Automatic annotation (TrEMBL):
This is Aminotransferase. Belongs to the class-I pyridoxal-phosphate-dependent aminotransferase family. It is an enzyme of class 2 (transferase). Residues 2-344 form the Aminotransferase class I/classII large domain. Its cofactor is pyridoxal 5'-phosphate.
Length: 349
Protein backbone atom coordinates (compact mmCIF):
# COMPACT_ATOMS: atom_id res chain seq x y z
CA UNK A 1 0.00 0.00 0.00
CA UNK A 2 1.31 3.47 -0.95
CA UNK A 3 -0.19 5.88 1.54
CA UNK A 4 -0.24 9.53 0.47
CA UNK A 5 -3.20 10.44 2.63
CA UNK A 6 -1.54 11.39 5.92
CA UNK A 7 -1.07 15.02 6.94
CA UNK A 8 1.92 14.28 9.10
CA UNK A 9 5.69 14.45 8.64
CA UNK A 10 7.33 11.07 8.08
CA UNK A 11 10.51 12.01 9.97
CA UNK A 12 11.22 11.10 13.58
CA UNK A 13 11.07 13.96 16.07
CA UNK A 14 14.59 15.54 16.15
CA UNK A 15 16.95 14.09 18.77
CA UNK A 16 17.36 17.28 20.84
CA UNK A 17 13.58 17.49 21.25
CA UNK A 18 13.23 13.83 22.19
CA UNK A 19 16.01 14.30 24.75
CA UNK A 20 14.14 17.24 26.26
CA UNK A 21 11.09 14.99 26.65
CA UNK A 22 13.15 12.23 28.28
CA UNK A 23 14.82 14.74 30.61
CA UNK A 24 11.41 16.11 31.56
CA UNK A 25 10.27 12.66 32.69
CA UNK A 26 13.54 11.95 34.52
CA UNK A 27 13.35 15.28 36.32
CA UNK A 28 9.75 14.68 37.37
CA UNK A 29 8.13 17.28 35.15
CA UNK A 30 5.07 15.10 35.31
CA UNK A 31 2.44 17.13 37.16
CA UNK A 32 -0.37 19.53 36.35
CA UNK A 33 0.63 22.97 35.09
CA UNK A 34 -1.29 26.19 34.78
CA UNK A 35 -4.01 25.80 32.16
CA UNK A 36 -2.42 28.10 29.57
CA UNK A 37 0.96 26.39 29.91
CA UNK A 38 4.25 26.79 31.79
CA UNK A 39 5.61 30.31 31.84
CA UNK A 40 8.92 29.35 30.16
CA UNK A 41 7.03 28.05 27.16
CA UNK A 42 4.67 31.04 27.04
CA UNK A 43 7.72 33.31 27.06
CA UNK A 44 9.47 31.28 24.36
CA UNK A 45 6.35 31.58 22.19
CA UNK A 46 6.31 35.37 22.71
CA UNK A 47 9.96 35.55 21.67
CA UNK A 48 9.35 33.38 18.63
CA UNK A 49 6.38 35.51 17.53
CA UNK A 50 8.41 38.67 17.98
CA UNK A 51 11.50 37.45 16.16
CA UNK A 52 9.93 35.51 13.32
CA UNK A 53 6.46 36.99 12.87
CA UNK A 54 6.90 40.60 13.94
CA UNK A 55 4.14 40.12 16.53
CA UNK A 56 4.26 41.63 20.02
CA UNK A 57 2.54 39.54 22.65
CA UNK A 58 2.89 39.10 26.40
CA UNK A 59 2.52 35.67 28.07
CA UNK A 60 -1.05 36.63 29.20
CA UNK A 61 -2.02 36.78 25.54
CA UNK A 62 -0.81 33.23 24.81
CA UNK A 63 -2.42 29.83 25.38
CA UNK A 64 -0.85 26.41 24.82
CA UNK A 65 -3.17 23.60 23.83
CA UNK A 66 -3.36 19.98 22.74
CA UNK A 67 -2.27 20.69 19.20
CA UNK A 68 -3.34 23.55 16.96
CA UNK A 69 -6.58 21.61 16.63
CA UNK A 70 -7.58 22.21 20.25
CA UNK A 71 -6.57 25.87 19.98
CA UNK A 72 -8.70 26.24 16.86
CA UNK A 73 -11.69 24.68 18.58
CA UNK A 74 -11.27 26.79 21.71
CA UNK A 75 -11.08 29.88 19.47
CA UNK A 76 -14.17 29.03 17.47
CA UNK A 77 -16.14 27.92 20.54
CA UNK A 78 -15.21 31.13 22.34
CA UNK A 79 -16.03 33.63 19.61
CA UNK A 80 -19.03 31.90 18.04
CA UNK A 81 -22.56 32.08 19.41
CA UNK A 82 -25.41 29.88 18.19
CA UNK A 83 -26.27 30.87 14.63
CA UNK A 84 -23.18 32.99 14.05
CA UNK A 85 -21.56 32.68 10.66
CA UNK A 86 -17.90 31.93 10.16
CA UNK A 87 -16.36 32.36 6.72
CA UNK A 88 -14.02 29.62 5.53
CA UNK A 89 -12.11 29.75 2.25
CA UNK A 90 -12.11 26.61 0.09
CA UNK A 91 -10.19 24.47 -0.33
CA UNK A 92 -10.07 24.16 3.45
CA UNK A 93 -8.87 21.67 6.03
CA UNK A 94 -11.84 19.41 6.78
CA UNK A 95 -11.80 20.21 10.49
CA UNK A 96 -12.65 23.92 10.11
CA UNK A 97 -16.35 23.63 9.16
CA UNK A 98 -16.89 20.73 11.56
CA UNK A 99 -15.57 22.76 14.49
CA UNK A 100 -17.83 25.67 13.55
CA UNK A 101 -20.82 23.31 13.50
CA UNK A 102 -19.78 21.81 16.86
CA UNK A 103 -19.78 25.34 18.28
CA UNK A 104 -23.34 25.92 17.02
CA UNK A 105 -22.23 28.22 14.22
CA UNK A 106 -22.78 28.14 10.49
CA UNK A 107 -19.77 27.63 8.22
CA UNK A 108 -20.00 29.86 5.14
CA UNK A 109 -17.71 28.48 2.47
CA UNK A 110 -16.24 30.91 -0.05
CA UNK A 111 -14.77 29.28 -3.12
CA UNK A 112 -12.88 30.87 -6.01
CA UNK A 113 -11.81 29.28 -9.29
CA UNK A 114 -8.10 29.79 -8.66
CA UNK A 115 -8.36 28.88 -4.95
CA UNK A 116 -6.87 32.24 -3.99
CA UNK A 117 -8.60 34.53 -1.48
CA UNK A 118 -10.85 37.02 -3.22
CA UNK A 119 -11.77 40.20 -1.39
CA UNK A 120 -14.78 40.58 -3.68
CA UNK A 121 -16.17 37.11 -2.91
CA UNK A 122 -15.51 37.47 0.81
CA UNK A 123 -17.32 40.81 0.89
CA UNK A 124 -20.32 39.17 -0.75
CA UNK A 125 -20.38 36.48 1.94
CA UNK A 126 -20.46 38.93 4.87
CA UNK A 127 -23.82 39.34 6.63
CA UNK A 128 -24.85 40.83 9.97
CA UNK A 129 -24.30 37.36 11.49
CA UNK A 130 -20.68 37.11 10.32
CA UNK A 131 -18.49 36.72 13.39
CA UNK A 132 -15.15 35.63 12.01
CA UNK A 133 -13.14 34.39 9.09
CA UNK A 134 -10.72 31.48 9.23
CA UNK A 135 -7.53 31.84 7.19
CA UNK A 136 -4.98 29.13 6.51
CA UNK A 137 -1.78 30.05 4.72
CA UNK A 138 0.31 28.08 3.76
CA UNK A 139 -2.81 26.18 2.88
CA UNK A 140 -3.78 22.59 3.47
CA UNK A 141 -4.57 21.12 0.91
CA UNK A 142 -3.56 23.50 -1.92
CA UNK A 143 -0.06 24.50 -0.77
CA UNK A 144 -0.96 28.07 -1.75
CA UNK A 145 0.50 30.96 0.24
CA UNK A 146 -1.46 34.20 0.38
CA UNK A 147 0.50 37.18 -0.92
CA UNK A 148 1.05 40.36 1.05
CA UNK A 149 -1.34 42.18 -1.31
CA UNK A 150 -4.06 39.57 -0.81
CA UNK A 151 -3.64 39.72 2.95
CA UNK A 152 -3.79 43.51 2.92
CA UNK A 153 -7.08 43.37 1.01
CA UNK A 154 -8.42 40.94 3.59
CA UNK A 155 -7.21 43.21 6.38
CA UNK A 156 -9.17 46.10 4.91
CA UNK A 157 -12.38 44.05 4.89
CA UNK A 158 -11.79 42.81 8.42
CA UNK A 159 -11.19 46.30 9.80
CA UNK A 160 -14.11 47.78 7.88
CA UNK A 161 -16.55 45.13 9.13
CA UNK A 162 -14.95 44.52 12.54
CA UNK A 163 -14.93 40.77 12.17
CA UNK A 164 -12.48 38.48 13.91
CA UNK A 165 -9.80 36.48 12.15
CA UNK A 166 -8.59 33.06 13.18
CA UNK A 167 -5.39 32.53 11.24
CA UNK A 168 -3.96 29.03 11.15
CA UNK A 169 -0.25 29.38 10.39
CA UNK A 170 0.81 25.83 11.27
CA UNK A 171 2.72 25.33 7.98
CA UNK A 172 4.56 28.69 8.15
CA UNK A 173 8.05 27.16 8.13
CA UNK A 174 7.44 24.83 5.21
CA UNK A 175 8.07 27.31 2.39
CA UNK A 176 9.69 26.75 -1.01
CA UNK A 177 11.28 28.87 -3.73
CA UNK A 178 12.03 31.90 -1.53
CA UNK A 179 8.32 32.41 -0.84
CA UNK A 180 7.57 34.55 2.20
CA UNK A 181 4.96 33.96 4.88
CA UNK A 182 3.26 36.97 6.47
CA UNK A 183 1.46 36.77 9.79
CA UNK A 184 -1.92 38.38 9.36
CA UNK A 185 -1.91 40.19 12.72
CA UNK A 186 1.40 41.90 11.86
CA UNK A 187 -0.05 43.78 8.88
CA UNK A 188 -1.66 46.56 10.89
CA UNK A 189 -1.49 47.38 14.63
CA UNK A 190 -5.32 47.52 14.72
CA UNK A 191 -5.51 43.86 13.68
CA UNK A 192 -4.07 42.64 16.96
CA UNK A 193 -7.42 43.19 18.67
CA UNK A 194 -9.23 41.22 16.01
CA UNK A 195 -6.90 38.29 15.39
CA UNK A 196 -6.20 34.93 16.98
CA UNK A 197 -2.98 33.51 15.53
CA UNK A 198 -2.83 29.73 15.72
CA UNK A 199 0.35 27.73 15.36
CA UNK A 200 2.08 24.68 16.80
CA UNK A 201 5.03 22.33 16.68
CA UNK A 202 3.41 19.33 14.94
CA UNK A 203 4.38 20.03 11.34
CA UNK A 204 7.61 22.05 11.64
CA UNK A 205 9.28 19.73 14.14
CA UNK A 206 7.60 16.45 13.26
CA UNK A 207 5.87 16.37 16.64
CA UNK A 208 2.32 15.39 15.69
CA UNK A 209 1.98 12.89 18.54
CA UNK A 210 3.23 15.26 21.24
CA UNK A 211 0.09 17.40 20.83
CA UNK A 212 1.32 20.94 21.37
CA UNK A 213 -0.18 23.94 19.63
CA UNK A 214 -0.61 27.54 20.71
CA UNK A 215 -2.71 30.61 20.16
CA UNK A 216 -1.97 34.32 20.49
CA UNK A 217 -4.75 36.86 20.71
CA UNK A 218 -6.51 39.55 22.71
CA UNK A 219 -6.25 38.71 26.43
CA UNK A 220 -10.05 38.75 26.97
CA UNK A 221 -10.44 36.02 24.32
CA UNK A 222 -7.43 34.02 25.55
CA UNK A 223 -8.86 34.13 29.08
CA UNK A 224 -12.19 32.74 27.89
CA UNK A 225 -10.37 30.04 25.93
CA UNK A 226 -8.43 29.12 29.09
CA UNK A 227 -11.67 28.95 31.12
CA UNK A 228 -13.08 26.53 28.59
CA UNK A 229 -9.88 24.50 28.42
CA UNK A 230 -9.69 24.24 32.21
CA UNK A 231 -12.93 22.22 32.21
CA UNK A 232 -12.09 20.36 29.04
CA UNK A 233 -8.50 19.10 29.27
CA UNK A 234 -6.75 21.12 32.03
CA UNK A 235 -3.18 21.80 30.88
CA UNK A 236 -1.46 20.21 27.90
CA UNK A 237 1.00 17.42 28.75
CA UNK A 238 3.93 18.89 30.69
CA UNK A 239 6.46 16.50 29.14
CA UNK A 240 5.34 17.68 25.71
CA UNK A 241 5.49 21.31 26.83
CA UNK A 242 9.13 20.79 27.83
CA UNK A 243 9.84 19.20 24.44
CA UNK A 244 8.07 22.07 22.65
CA UNK A 245 10.20 24.53 24.61
CA UNK A 246 13.31 22.85 23.17
CA UNK A 247 11.73 22.79 19.71
CA UNK A 248 11.08 26.54 19.73
CA UNK A 249 14.23 27.70 21.46
CA UNK A 250 16.80 24.99 20.64
CA UNK A 251 18.83 24.22 17.53
CA UNK A 252 16.81 24.64 14.31
CA UNK A 253 19.03 22.67 11.91
CA UNK A 254 16.64 19.71 11.68
CA UNK A 255 13.93 21.97 10.24
CA UNK A 256 16.19 22.84 7.29
CA UNK A 257 17.06 19.19 6.71
CA UNK A 258 13.39 18.13 6.62
CA UNK A 259 12.44 21.06 4.41
CA UNK A 260 15.12 20.28 1.85
CA UNK A 261 13.90 16.66 1.65
CA UNK A 262 10.28 17.84 1.17
CA UNK A 263 11.51 20.14 -1.56
CA UNK A 264 13.30 17.28 -3.36
CA UNK A 265 10.07 15.28 -3.33
CA UNK A 266 7.98 18.27 -4.38
CA UNK A 267 10.21 18.90 -7.39
CA UNK A 268 10.06 15.25 -8.41
CA UNK A 269 6.24 15.09 -8.26
CA UNK A 270 5.75 18.42 -10.05
CA UNK A 271 8.10 17.33 -12.83
CA UNK A 272 6.30 13.99 -13.24
CA UNK A 273 2.82 15.56 -13.22
CA UNK A 274 3.93 18.16 -15.72
CA UNK A 275 5.24 15.62 -18.21
CA UNK A 276 2.04 13.59 -17.84
CA UNK A 277 -0.12 16.69 -18.41
CA UNK A 278 -1.83 16.37 -15.03
CA UNK A 279 -3.27 19.69 -13.87
CA UNK A 280 -1.99 20.57 -10.40
CA UNK A 281 -1.16 23.47 -8.14
CA UNK A 282 2.58 23.84 -7.62
CA UNK A 283 2.96 23.94 -3.85
CA UNK A 284 4.53 27.09 -2.43
CA UNK A 285 4.26 25.74 1.10
CA UNK A 286 3.19 22.76 3.29
CA UNK A 287 3.69 19.22 1.92
CA UNK A 288 0.76 18.52 -0.36
CA UNK A 289 0.25 18.48 -4.11
CA UNK A 290 -3.36 19.23 -5.06
CA UNK A 291 -4.23 17.90 -8.51
CA UNK A 292 -7.23 17.68 -10.75
CA UNK A 293 -8.63 14.28 -11.63
CA UNK A 294 -9.33 12.76 -14.98
CA UNK A 295 -12.73 14.17 -15.98
CA UNK A 296 -14.01 10.63 -16.62
CA UNK A 297 -14.23 10.15 -12.85
CA UNK A 298 -15.24 12.28 -9.93
CA UNK A 299 -12.57 12.66 -7.26
CA UNK A 300 -14.21 10.27 -4.80
CA UNK A 301 -14.47 7.56 -7.43
CA UNK A 302 -10.91 8.29 -8.54
CA UNK A 303 -9.59 7.80 -5.01
CA UNK A 304 -11.64 4.64 -4.52
CA UNK A 305 -10.26 3.15 -7.72
CA UNK A 306 -6.70 4.19 -6.95
CA UNK A 307 -7.01 2.44 -3.61
CA UNK A 308 -8.70 -0.73 -4.85
CA UNK A 309 -6.79 -1.27 -8.08
CA UNK A 310 -3.44 0.38 -7.44
CA UNK A 311 -3.13 0.32 -3.62
CA UNK A 312 -2.53 4.07 -3.59
CA UNK A 313 -4.26 6.07 -0.85
CA UNK A 314 -5.10 9.71 -1.57
CA UNK A 315 -7.64 12.17 -0.16
CA UNK A 316 -10.49 13.28 -2.43
CA UNK A 317 -11.20 17.00 -2.77
CA UNK A 318 -14.66 16.43 -1.28
CA UNK A 319 -12.92 16.44 2.12
CA UNK A 320 -11.74 20.00 1.46
CA UNK A 321 -14.88 21.44 -0.12
CA UNK A 322 -13.47 21.12 -3.65
CA UNK A 323 -14.69 18.02 -5.52
CA UNK A 324 -12.79 17.26 -8.70
CA UNK A 325 -9.44 17.61 -6.97
CA UNK A 326 -7.26 15.21 -5.02
CA UNK A 327 -4.63 15.77 -2.31
CA UNK A 328 -1.35 13.88 -2.37
CA UNK A 329 0.83 14.23 0.72
CA UNK A 330 4.55 14.01 0.05
CA UNK A 331 5.42 13.44 3.67
CA UNK A 332 6.40 10.01 2.36
CA UNK A 333 9.81 8.55 1.36
CA UNK A 334 10.92 9.35 -2.19
CA UNK A 335 11.10 5.67 -3.26
CA UNK A 336 7.45 5.20 -2.31
CA UNK A 337 6.57 8.46 -4.05
CA UNK A 338 8.23 7.20 -7.24
CA UNK A 339 6.17 4.00 -7.21
CA UNK A 340 2.96 5.83 -6.28
CA UNK A 341 3.41 8.41 -9.03
CA UNK A 342 4.03 5.62 -11.54
CA UNK A 343 0.66 4.14 -10.58
CA UNK A 344 -1.15 7.49 -10.72
CA UNK A 345 0.35 8.15 -14.15
CA UNK A 346 -0.76 4.72 -15.33
CA UNK A 347 -4.29 5.60 -14.28
CA UNK A 348 -4.16 8.90 -16.17
CA UNK A 349 -2.56 7.36 -19.28
C1 LIG B 1 -4.35 23.37 8.50
C2 LIG B 1 -4.11 22.53 9.70
N1 LIG B 1 -4.25 23.08 10.91
C3 LIG B 1 -4.04 22.36 12.03
C4 LIG B 1 -3.68 21.04 11.96
C5 LIG B 1 -3.52 20.25 13.22
O1 LIG B 1 -2.35 20.51 13.88
P1 LIG B 1 -2.06 19.88 15.32
O2 LIG B 1 -1.41 18.55 15.10
O3 LIG B 1 -1.14 20.86 15.96
O4 LIG B 1 -3.36 19.74 16.03
C6 LIG B 1 -3.53 20.43 10.71
C7 LIG B 1 -3.19 18.99 10.62
O5 LIG B 1 -3.38 18.33 9.64
C8 LIG B 1 -3.73 21.19 9.55
O6 LIG B 1 -3.58 20.67 8.34
Amino acid sequence: MYNFSAGEPDFPTPENIKEAGIDAIKNNFTKYTSVRGISKLLEAICQKLKKENNLNYTPEEIIVGNGAKEILYLSVRTVCEIGDEIIILAPHWGTFPEQVKLAGGKPVIVKTDDFRPSAKEIKKAITNRTKAIILNSPNNPSGIIYTLEELKELAEIVLENEILVITDEIYEKLLYDETKHYSFAALDPKLKDLTITVNGVSKTYSMTGWRIGYGAGPSYIIKKMADLKSHLSTNSCLISQMAALEALSGNQDSVKVMLSEYDRRRKYICQEFQTQGIEFIKPQGAFYVFFKVNPKFDSLEFCERMLEKFQVALVPGEAFGTPGWVRLSYAVELDDIKEGIKRIKAFFA
